[in-house]
Amino acid sequence: MKNIIYVLVLFTLFACEDYLDKTDPNATTFVEFFNDEGDLRRVVYSSYRDVFTNNGSHQTNFYLKDGKSDNAYSRIQSHYHQNVGNGNFNSSSRDFLYYYELHMKHLGRLNTFIANIDVPYVEDESVRQRYKSILEGLRFWHYFELTFRWGDVPFTLEPADLDTARKPATPKEDILDYLFSNYEEIANNLPKQEYATDKFMFNHYSFKALVMRYALYNNRYALAAKLAKEIMDSQAYELHPEYADLFNYKASSNNKEFIMHYNRESYSGSTYTFRDLGPHFRTGNGQSYVVPLKSLVDSYWTLQGEPIDNSLLHSKKEYELNPSLNRDPRYSASIIGHGDIFYGEEIDIFNGNNPMYYEKERASASGYWFKKFVDEADAFKGSGNMEFALLRYAEVLLTYAEAKIMLNEIDPLAKSAINDVRRRAGLDMTFADVTLPTYGAYTNDQWVELIRNERRVELAGEGLRYDDIIRWKIADKVLNKPALGHTMEVNGELQSIKIEDRSFKSNNYLWPFHENTLRVNPGIKQNPGY
Predict the structure, then answer these.
(1) Would you say 388 and 407 are in contact if contact means Cβ atoms under 8 Å apart?
(2) Residue 87, SS3 per DSSP
(3) With the C-alpha atoms ordered 391, 395, 399, 402, is the resulting torsion angle positive or negative?
(4) How many CB atoms are closer than 10 A to CB 520?
(5) Residue 35 pLDDT
(6) 436 φψ region: left (φ > 0), alpha (ψ -120 to 50), beta (else)
(7) pLDDT in tens, 10-69
(8) Which three-class secondary structure state does DSSP give residue 383?
(9) What is the pTM of this model?
């Protein structure tokens, strides 16, 4: 009986009162509370909320996800990033049950709504079709995520009953073949212009940008390059002139770079990035939930666009002791740490009387904080109203370049895309221009190293690093090391703050199905090694 209840809860539409505001609070049938355009809008609001933009969910907020990777450390185990980052998990870890149930719950609801999209009375058929396509796009997103995390998973596009809810898993590649063969119809039923309000909803190009991301993730490089070029050719988006301003109030709501937007409308717009990421400081608000690691700090190359190991201007030791020295300007736009100025005061992580002391619970265990999304204007407030991008135009440019590099087709447009991102970042283009003769002798491995690092520093703190180290199959190298923080010189030797040991096994590239999931659906097979 418990198994039957579990399956029904996973797939039923009506399990959560918060999911849909009912027009009639006494409604008892599907038609009674799903009957007009307002209901369609509420369905879309709530369908985005849990998976993309629930401001109260530390497990899903995009800006905390780097805690799963070598970029950052997550200090709260129940946020589910820490255990993934340090490898302390197995098939009984609730982390994976939470994420899997989240996807399956929403897929059940989406399938039901899409199947009944003609129930609400909407005079304009194009409006109904638009909402249907937005919901279909969200359904694609769930399957992209499920296959990327677990591989083979159950796949259905119809409302589930007990039998279909327990169907065997479909091979990952079969699911992807369907998704990549059918995205165009959805995109063509979406408006090409960004919405004036509710701009988080998919439009033609933002949905294609999502498909582009997962085409890259799944080594469908030709498709990724094609979609990236379509978005580039549309001229609907452009790089904002000032990189740093995208992540504070100066430009977060006034730029042409954001393609996929965070949904603030469905919960009145409050955001909590200062609380989640910011220093404890004097306000008591900052929680330092996820903080940068030395690994990320060292990945910022020089102002001239070369690794700090190769610099002829300064030694690696000098760079490690002074991260701001001759560095890619994206470092100072993204990270703050010991010796930097915050709200008019110098940060001292070694002062035991200071709330920023690195050993205090709510301080940074690494001695670094993300500067992205932490605007001092929010320092003395309970919340903010900052706008965020879930996908920016810079990612489109880097996707085109990476796809072409992986296809060994490095054309002028790929080099121009890299240059555009580097130039906007403020690198010294007399050296960092990838069309210079120096780069003409680059091997494919060198191009791969360059584009991967470019992506890392451009998108640091935006929740994509874990996905990248998984798809590049380098997690077993970068996560089998201790998590380190601020570096200092002691008796002539460099010492870095050690936070924790980490491990990553070869089977961890796929997540385990939780034991409850396997008991409920015997058609699912556990991934190898768990």
Answers:
(1) no
(2) coil
(3) negative
(4) 19
(5) 87
(6) beta
(7) 444 333 434 444 444 444 566 667 889 999 988 888 888 866 667 778 999 999 999 999
(8) coil
(9) 0.94
CA distance linking residue 384 with residue 387, whole number of Å: 9
Reduce the DSSP state of residue 97 to 3 states and report it: helix
pLDDT of the residue at 160: 82
Residue 202 is encoded by which pair of tokens?
Answer: 């998919």
Dihedral sign, CA of 129, 131, 132, 138?
Answer: positive
Which distant-in-sequence residues (6+ apart) come within 8 Å of 497 by Cβ? 358, 365, 366, 367, 484, 485, 486, 487
Interatomic CA distance for residues 222 and 404, integer angstroms: 8
CA distance 396 to 342: 32
**Structure token digits, residue 133:** 């396509």
In the chain, what's the furthest Cα-to-Cα distance?
A: 77
Q: Exposed (0-12), middle (13-18) or buried (19+): which is 104, by Cβ within 10 Å?
A: buried
**Cβ–Cβ < 8 Å for 337, 486:** yes
Burial 385-401 (b: 16+ CB within 10 A, else e): ebbbbbbbbbbbbbbbb
Q: Amino acid identity of 1?
A: M
Name the stretches of the chain with pLDDT < 70.
1-32, 50-53, 266-268
**For residue 368, what pLDDT is reported?**
98
Q: Which residues have a Cβ under 8 Å from the Cβ of 184 and sit 6 or more positions away?
A: none
The residue type of 476 is: D
Q: How far apart are CA 169 and CA 178, in angstroms?
A: 15
Q: State the virtual CA torsion across 421, 424, 430, 435 in degrees, nearest 10.
A: 30
Which residue shows structure tokens 């780097």?
66
Structure tokens at 318: 């000098």
Residue 218: how many CB atoms within 10 A of its CB? 19
Inter-axis angle of helices 412-425 and 221-234, nearest 10: 60
- Cβ(530)–Cβ(90) below 8 Å: yes
Q: Which amino acid is at 315?
A: S
Question: What per-residue confidence (pLDDT) applies to 266?
Answer: 65
What's the pLDDT score for residue 2?
A: 41
Residue 175 structure tokens: 């699911």
Q: Dihedral (C-alpha) 308, 312, 315, 319: value to the nearest 10 degrees?
A: -40
Which residue in this structure is represented by tokens 């709200």? 343
Count of residues for the chain? 530
Half-sphere exposure (CA, 13 Å, Cβ side) for 263? 20
Beta partners for residue 488, in sequence order: 495
